[in-house]
Amino acid sequence: MFDYLVVGAGLFGAVFAHEAHKRGKRVLVIDRRSHIAGNVYTENVGGINVHKFGAHIFHTSNKEVWDYIQQFAEFNRYTNSPVARYKDELYNLPFNMNTFSQMWGVKTPAEAQKKLDEQKAEAVAALNGREPANLEEQALSLVGRDIYEKLIKGYTEKQWGRKCTELPAFIIKRLPVRLVYDNNYFNDKYQGIPVGGYTQIVEKMLDDVEVRLGVDFFKERGALTANAKKIVFTGMIDEYYDYRFGELEYRSLRFETEDLPQENFQGNAVVNYTEAQVPYTRIIEHKHFEFGCQGGNATEHTVITREYPATWRRGDEPYYPMNDEKNNALYAKYRAMADTEANVIFGGRLGMYKYFDMHHVIAEALACVGKEFG
Ligand code: UDP
User: Fold this and answer.
1) Of 240, 307, 319, 364, which one is the catalytic site residue?
2) What residues contact 2, with CB distance under 8 A and at least 6 apart?
3) Of these residues, 68, 91, 250, 251, which one is catalytic?
4) Ligand 1, closest atom to CA 156?
5) Could you give the CA distance from residue 352 to residue 371 in angstroms, rounded to a whole number?
6) Using omega within 30 degrees of 0 as the cis cutoff, is the peptide bond preceding 94 cis?
7) Whose CA is nearest to atom 15 of ligand 1?
8) How many Cβ atoms sit within 10 Å of the Cβ of residue 126?
9) Does residue 313 surpass a pLDDT of 60?
10) Burial of residue 74 (number of CB atoms within 10 Å: 0-12, 13-18, 19+)
11) pLDDT at residue 298, rounded to an integer
């Protein structure tokens, strides 16, 4: 008999399992995949830690979360500074003085501000004081027409498979707009990549915890739940309830990875392809997350991954929840069901149906631990 059955060996499940085990609880972690660590899984390929399920850059302003994750690995000083490629033009991201200078030839913040005001004027006037109702309105009123057309529209419509006019505004609010020459993609206080990759972090969290891989909760539900007092479920909440109110929508991804016999392919960890015609959204060159082209760990080969957004259908890997009004309302119904359960905790991006980053997931898991164990 287990005190907790944790379904899913990703970050939420691993933090919870680690903390429960530390408190003397009997914990079983299962995952239907053949490896732990969920989508933060990294694999060493000839000296390069490959982010198998897309770029994972740890960033947070939450000191508790930052201190927590440091127990499990040393972090390097990586600062995410993606480059956007639109046709043959290159731009720095996020939207900052470098971008404005490349886009319009402006040199000072005052010149950039003047240009931004001109670019935004039409959209701001159209809003007439109300909040942007969709991503297009949000982007146009934030950075104006040129940046929207070249750096946002194509990328976003590929990424989400929907028109920007049909997407929620909050998605684009993730990106900073700055009048300084600073290409740091995140505003957070702490940032880095674990030296040696993410898998070791989850391995350490699950050290001494019983883990069974290749186990599908839904195929063995009866026996598994009969053997546990409580369940921590980090899969899709709608699947848990057998889609009784209908299917939540997700966005999926397909990754195409190549190992190339050259030292340096693109000179940066992340290059976004922002035009609609290129079918992938970005190319990740994994070694640059760890300064693989410099210093002692230089390798003669490099591993790159093209990331293709994909329609999600039942059975595919769900990567992003579609947090629009319709889906959030449907989630609220599942959430209300979940609130009536005394013995099931839902966690993580899929269990809570939220566009969480890693630091959010850890904060949620620690909050859940606090509630459970005081
Ligand atoms: N985005 C964009 N152009 C870019 C990068 C991002 O328009 O070159 C928009 C896009 O709508 C995307 C959102 O910003 O969905 C958030 O991007 P982020 O890089 O934070 O997404 P993630 O890494 O979580 O996929």
Assistant:
1) 307
2) 26, 27, 28, 227, 228, 229
3) 251
4) 11
5) 16
6) yes
7) 156
8) 12
9) yes
10) exposed
11) 76
Task: Say how many Å lie between the CA of residue 311 and the centre of ligand 1.
Answer: 17
Choice among 23, 64, 118, 174 that is catalytic: 174
Measured in Å, residue 86 CA sits from the centre of ligand 1 at 14
Which pTM was predicted? 0.96
Which amino acid, one-letter code, is at 237?
I
**Length in residues, the chain:** 374
pLDDT for residue 17 is more than 50: yes
What mean pLDDT is predicted for residues 193-199?
96
Q: How far is the CA of 156 from the centre of ligand 1 (A)?
A: 7
Looking at residue 297, what is its pLDDT?
57
Per-residue b or e along 321-358, where b marks 16 or more CB atoms closer than 10 Å to that residue's CB: bbbbeebbebbeebeeebeeeeebbbbbbbbbbeebbb
Using alpha carbons, select from 279, 299, 278 the residue that is nearest to residue 288. Answer: 299
Q: How far is the CA of 180 from the centre of ligand 1 (A)?
A: 20
Question: How many Cα atoms within 13 Å fall on the side-chain side of residue 157?
Answer: 16
What's the pLDDT at 293?
47
Condensed to tens digits (0 to 9), the pLDDT of residues 120-140 reads 999 999 999 999 999 999 999
Distance of CA 297 to the CA centre of its chain: 27
**Predicted confidence (pLDDT) per residue in 317-353, tens digit:** 999 999 999 999 999 999 999 999 999 999 999 999 9
Most distant pair of Cα atoms in the chain: their distance: 68
DSSP class of residue 151?
I
Share of the chain above pLDDT 90, in %: 96
Checking if the pLDDT of 295 tops 70, the result is no
Report yes or no: 260 and 293 within 8 Å, Cβ to Cβ.
no
Question: How many Å apart are CA 205 and CA 203, to the nearest integer?
Answer: 5
Question: Is the CB of 171 inside a 6 Å radius of any atom of ligand 1?
Answer: yes
Separation in Å, CA 259 to CA 44, 52, 141, 212: 12, 13, 41, 31
Q: Give the model's pLDDT for residue 175.
A: 86
Q: Which atom of ligand 1 is nearest to the CA of 160?
A: 15
Ligand 1 pocket, residue 152 CB under 6 Å: yes
Residue 55 CA: nearest ligand 1 atom is 23
